[in-house]
Amino acid sequence: MKNKTSTMPSLKLRRVAIDTYKENVAYLHRDCLLYRTEGFQALSKIEIHRIGNGNPVIAVLNIVDDEIITAPDQLGLSEQVFQQLNLAEGTEVFISHASPPSSLKSVHLKIAGERLSYDAYHKIIQDIVNNRYSKIEITAFLVGCAESGMERDEILSLTRAMVNTGERLDWGEDLVSDKHCIGGIPGNRTTMLIVPIVAAHGMLIPKTSSRAITSPAGTADTMEVLANVNQSQQKLRKMVHQQRAFIVWGGTANLAPADDILIAVERPLSMDSTGQMVASILSKKVAAGATHLLIDIPIGKTAKVRNSTEGQKLRKTFQYVGDKIGLHIEVVLTNGSQPIGRGIGPVLETIDVMKVLENDPEAPHDLREKSLQLAGRIIEFDFDVRGGQGYEIARDILESGRALEKMNAIINSQGRNLVLPELGKLQHQIVASKDGFIEAIDNLKIARIARLAGAPMDKSAGIYLNKKVGDNVKKGEVLFTIYAQFNADFKFAIAAADKEPSYSIQSELNHD
Question: Which residue has the higher pLDDT, 443 or 20?
Fold first, then answer.
């Protein structure tokens, strides 16, 4: 390969200011001599070789016809691959065809329903981290795992592979607590309340959080309204030393880096298979240095887990993998019958969180209560706290104002946003079609409407729930309010809300 590239014409690097998000992309002009003579094709993979030494960098090739993007004697590079190659614009490089990663054979076996070994998963994940897979090939791997299913030992192998292909933090303490919810419940922003409560108790809780995959907001999306969530490992250690806690995006510290690449493919596909989910959650927690983890599994007809039988099965999977990788796990099954809190979308969820921390009488009771229950369970990880005492300790910390004080300290340490985004200027109210009481709220439909309104990419977009399950309602009374910033998103959200009602209203007569 090297001998061949040395006889081929070199190309001058050109930086193309395009964010291809977790994928290396290169651009070659159609009139380039190499394109015409060497058989390079769009969407094929190429190796980019530095002159002299260094390992080649792999990228997916795009062909362009505009010299403003890339001239015939140039090789254009997207932002990610340009930074990875770390060479100045105009530097001469050679390109060659990239051989397919050998681990693709294992992907084909998985698609055919075969069980894969740890070595097979490790090679797949290593190739993904090294940018040897295109997004199409990553999709094939994800679909193969989802459709063929994964046995618990395979989930364990995938988890270990994802941990072992990235960095791992060590905080030097015997008890490092963490919490994670599997998601699926809009507005369920308990983490932003649990972390300051637990940290105010004195326990270490360094929280690396995810961005939304299929929901209107992840914890990182919502925390980003208040503070910077992109932090270096050096800054994380400083914050832990000062505050005993942080709430950051886990994608910036090279912790289980394959997870962020997989999520980038899962998000547009709205995929969230059980095996991938367990491996994603636990690999991030182990890499982040957690020793004790609380897992929240909401159960409900429109939640990710529909019934307690499924919940118990998932609980056992988490506990099995956790035990094998040395992670103490406690799993709680919670009520996932409706959204938690009132706000859905980053800004609206932030408002709910701050109301709880400020002990505002208007704070959503369900968000407050669930956060206290979960925080109490984590506090009981403390060797000096007896079982059953955690809830009262958590409540005292919240009501005394210590949780708010700790949250403000965490925000300041991460870098407070001085200008907060305002709610979307476009608003539309969805009203009740009849008198009665709210019998049910569809989590999936509400989440979809909020995403169509622009959340989480547009932090000011989302939904405010004026009514919750069990509330009485009169015909014409507001059920929920849609907020959007852009007219196209606004129209999509209204159309979806009108087409498929997300609220079930039972008449009082039938109720009796």
Answer: 443
Residues 163-172, mean pLDDT to the nearest whole number: 92
Catalytic (active site) residue 272: yes
DSSP, res 331: E
pTM for this prediction: 0.88
Taking the mean position of all CA atoms in its chain, how far away is CA 237? 22
Domain ranges of the chain: 2-97, 104-149, 177-249+274-414, 426-511
Mean pLDDT for 398-414 is 98
Beta-bridge mates of residue 75: 13, 28
Q: Which CATH class is domain 426-511?
A: alpha beta
Annotated catalytic residue, options 127, 178, 272, 489: 272
Q: 175 or 214: whose pLDDT is higher?
A: 175
Among 73, 63, 132, residue whose Cα is nearest residue 104: 132
- Phi and psi at 496, nearest 5°, equal -65, -40
CA distance 126 to 103: 9
Question: Do residues 413 and 246 make contact, with C-beta atoms less than 8 angstroms apart?
Answer: yes
Please report the sign of the dihedral spanned by the C-alpha atoms of residue 263, residue 268, residue 274, residue 275.
Answer: negative
On whether the CB atoms of residues 308 and 333 are closer than 8 A, the answer is yes
> In this structure, which topology does domain 2-97 adopt according to CATH?
Barwin-like endoglucanases (2.40.40)
Would you tell me which CATH number, out of the four given (3.30.240.20, 2.30.29.30, 3.40.1030.10, 3.40.47.10), belongs to the domain 177-249+274-414? 3.40.1030.10
DSSP label at residue 227? B
Between CA 347 and CA 341 the distance in angstroms is 13
Instruction: State the Cα–Cα distance between residues 430 and 480, nearest whole angstrom.
Output: 6
- Check the CA dihedral 333-335-339-344 and report its sign: negative
Hey, how many other C-beta atoms are within 10 angstroms of the C-beta on 424?
25
And the tokens for 66?
A: 């505009």
